[in-house]
């Protein structure tokens, strides 16, 4: 009779499972545009994103990026999240297999008012329990944990890319600052020479004292500007120290071999560019943050399935096998023992709407994950488009900026010669100097802007991450 009841319970659960199994929620629609609206970068050499830093002809840049990634708390936290997700995946998967425990018991029984002698019963046995995952609740938990593990792994790469981009921006920012400092110091020396010359001519009676005072004021202003620029460069160095954990004296020693002149301007921008796929979907498939958001949608979908499965019956099996000994009246009796059962089915009847509410909450989390994923895709498209626009803009402006710089340099040299020969006023000289200084700074800033655009494109293109093969 008992076996017939167990068989009936199992058959009933399997019948319900056949009509009640729930799967993942709907698929997320593709949000990638058909094509890029901004022009793709062209010309020049390109390098694979994963080795992009090493292809720039600047060993120090690669060294700084690697040092920053090794000590970054962001990367360390992402690595910890992988470990946590892996542990949660293991725990969720363990629910699909029987649990076995070892049990040892000993019981002493004495009945003083009866003729039955005292006895000691001892047992050692293995006890197993197993919940049959008829409706997929445990499988849904395992699959959600697996999705979050894959999300965490992609998040670790995304953290490394972010740190690399931040370090490169600080490095190129420092190099640009050094060039601006060189321009400021050159301008300060030029103004100091003009002030000295003007002072001499004023003392000889060829220049008004007010003109000499104006020249001194101009020299002081230029010197103050150079001091402020040097302080900014020191701040940039300290930012790199914080990012890389390299001692400041050692870092300054490494930075000491900075290029000068035209080579320095070239060093402000990466030597090799990035080849971008024509189809946006291909580029977005290389973005770890997009993949992370996609896996969060999958995890939320499995959680919806798991919450729905909790509304159906649960079937559990238990059993034990072992060996026992009974000691009574000076004699020992030893025997093997085993049992199967109970076979237990739990039928949800009334929970005041708890399970229904859990399903609704899981569904809302899924909708939120879908919305977040779609926002991540739109942001990824925006970042690529903006980087492309900035690259195109700096490329188109480079020729004009170079022409302007050469023209203003020539105009300043000519005006300075005229001033020394008494054929131009100090006002003309200062105006020519101001326009030349602005052109020098604009050229450096343009190169720095271009490097920032390349780094932004590196970041927007995924930094060399590849989607797992099973996906």
Automatic annotation (TrEMBL):
Domain of life: Bacteria
PANTHER family registered for this protein in UniProt: OUTER MEMBRANE CATION EFFLUX PROTEIN, PROTEIN CYAE
Gene3D superfamilies: Outer membrane efflux proteins (OEP)
Family membership: Belongs to the outer membrane factor (OMF) (TC 1.B.17) family.
Signal peptide feature range: 1-17
Keyword set, alphabetical order: Lipoprotein, Membrane, Palmitate, Signal, Transmembrane, Transmembrane beta strand
Protein name: Efflux transporter outer membrane subunit
Location in or out of the cell: Cell membrane
Entry membrane topology: Lipid-anchor
A Pfam cross-reference name: OEP
InterPro entries recorded: MdtP/NodT-like, OMP_efflux
Keyword Calcium: no
